[in-house]
Amino acid sequence: MKKKNGFKRIIIAALVTAVAITVGMSAYRSLAGDSVPYDTYNYDYWNTIVLTPAPYVPDGAVKGVDIGTTDFKEPQDLCVADNGEVYVADTGNNRIVVLDKSMKKVIRTIDSFKRDGADDRFSAPYGVCLSEAGQLYVADSNNARIVVLTPEGEFVKIVDNPQSEILDDNFSFIPLKVTVDYADRVYVIGKNAFEGILVFESDGQFTGYFGTIDVKISPWEKFWRRLASKEERSNQQLYIPTEFTGIDVDSEGFIYASNIDSDGIQAVRRLNPQGKDVIQKGENGNVGGDVKFSQYGDYGGASQITDVVYRDKGVYSLLDRKRGRIFTYDKEGNLLYIFGGLGTQEGTFTTPVAIEVSGDELLVLDAGRNSIIKFKAANYGQLINEAVALRYDGDETLAIEKWSEVLRLNENNELANNGIGKAYLTAGDNKTAMQYFKRAKNRKYYSVAFKRYRNELLAENMNWIMTGVIVLIIGLVAFSKWRRKKTGKKKEESLL
Amino acid sequence: MMKKYFSKDKWSYAFYTVSHPVDAYYEIRHRERGSVPIAIVLVMLFAFSFSINRMAASFIVNDVNPRSVNSFKELLAVLMLYFLLCVSNWSITCLMEGEGRLKDIAIALGYAMTPMIFCYTIGTIFSQFVAQDEGAFYTMIIGVGIAYSAFMMLVGIMTVHNFTLAKTLVTLFLTLVALLIIIFVMLLLVDLLNQVYSFFHSIYQELIFRG
């Protein structure tokens, strides 16, 4: 009887364990419900990598055959119209493909246009852009021209053949990427145009270079160049600035241009109308993608930012072709979140070339897989986006709700801690503010909160403190008198 | 044994050294008032207060990532440096007619740690109560500690060996050179031992694979 009982017990125990394990497993599964085929992380105050919840999750891929046309062939650029239509520069097929808003079917393909009564075709159209007036600008690279069409594909004009004394005699105009600002000025990234972005007025007149990247020569290189003879110097490689890789324009008419920075410090510039860089860098002074990376190997080296997209409310995203990551910064240059990766799973890239935003979704064009990969914001990313937008508009108090939601998902988020800390500071709760600023490693605001808190404490306890000081003084005086008396007596004794 | 090295008198003499360095170091050399074990304990205490400072000083004044602090490694490094300094100083001053024995050098350097121990500990506590613009006070506390310790080391070496200031400075420079030479020779030795080991290891492997 006893034995049977023991056997029963064992069976029950086994059952309970099995149930517990399955429940536990399913709980684990559901926790990892937004599991994604790439790393999602950010850098903390000390630039150490901290994993975060997924800000964006893959939302399918769009291939040419799925939407009623032939497959793309090495597409290089895409652009989203105000009405949500997506224009893809299908470079290898010499055509522009226009997708509807849901990206489920092709509306039209533009591979030729009527110009002065004759048919004209693209040759490797590399970049595509829509102006505010709704005209379609195509960087027709092998034909050395920018073709301007109506969205329907009717010919409007051609911008080509830049003429200026600042251009080299053997300069060849090969436009790669193009963007247009509110005044219909055309900004073009040309192949081998190291001097900067080519700017054309709305009438097609070339006005000059824009946003030149200064060459950086280290003192050490300067020293060696000084030692070298003229002949040696001519044999050395030239110090040429890096080329721009991607370009976008924000709502104020400022140009965002990405470039490849081999040091990984600044890979994007925000150029004002004079062509001066006015980008804001965050606490760590870095807007160059990955802050920490291995120096060696195929997977090592600084991020190679190939495109930039201005999103909304000062937020912009960079696309890295080295490790397939997407870095998102706010207006102040704070890294908001990082996601994306190279690979063959759905939601990863082989050769990412262009990034664009369509509503709440991010679209990445993969020239290796000939497809557009869509990402939709997960809860975490959505909350950060909303909080940053509210802060950009000046609604810090409204942003608090969002930030505290963010903290529930990731209590290490320094921006969220900062935001909440500021709210407590303005509300006068200095002690709580101190805790949040400490977590956010914000020296400046922690100091402000701390000083206020210290003053508060002093003011509240002034009576006690002053009483204590007076009692202490009286006590000390009495003690020293008593001691002197005692030692005096001793001395007398010893004298006797 | 314990009484001899850790008596109350010896401990209080370590503090007396802080307030009267010149006299105290003279007595340490000639009247056996110091204790090597206490010196080593002080060095270890310094290593601890140093690590604690790096770990626990407020983030307002502290640029160190606490995750990167390994107090055990730092203890070993400090002790290592201490012994190397003692040995290299001894080997140089022996040749330069210094009167100090290895024991005296060890005590001179070890006792000189006291100001740093105090200032690092006080600084760590004080840093919890500063705002950003008051960080200068913290830096000052640490700076005073380091400066006074350096002064005590200098005076200690000078008195123990009965050197002039100029000669002390020269020997200190030579001490650093000797330190580097010792490190270099040790690295050579380690490399050699490694090669010997790998030689025998490969013979062993060969035997195993063939047999």
User: Whole-number average pLDDT of chain B?
Assistant: 93
* Structural domain count of chain A: 2
Number of domains of chain B: 1
**Straight-line N-to-C gap of chain A:** 96 Å
Oligomer: heterodimer
Can you tell me the overall shape of chain B? globular
| The CATH fourth-level homologous superfamily of the largest domain in chain A | TolB, C-terminal domain
Q: How much helix is in the residues of chain B?
A: over 70%
Major interchain interface with per-chain residue totals: A-B, 12 and 9 residues
Q: Describe the biggest sheet of chain A?
A: 4 strands, antiparallel
Mean pLDDT of chain A: 86
Numbering strands along the chain, what is their spatial order in the largest sheet of chain A? 3-27-26-25
- Name the poorly predicted regions of chain A: 26-33
Could you say which overall geometry of chain A the principal axes of the C-alpha atoms support?
extended
The Rg value of chain B, from CA coordinates, equals: 21 Å
Largest sheet of chain B: none
Residue share in helices of chain A? 25-40%
Helical stretch tally of chain B: 9
Indicate the radius of gyration of chain A in whole angstroms: 32 Å
Fraction of residues in β-strands of chain B: under 5%
Strand segment count of chain B: 0
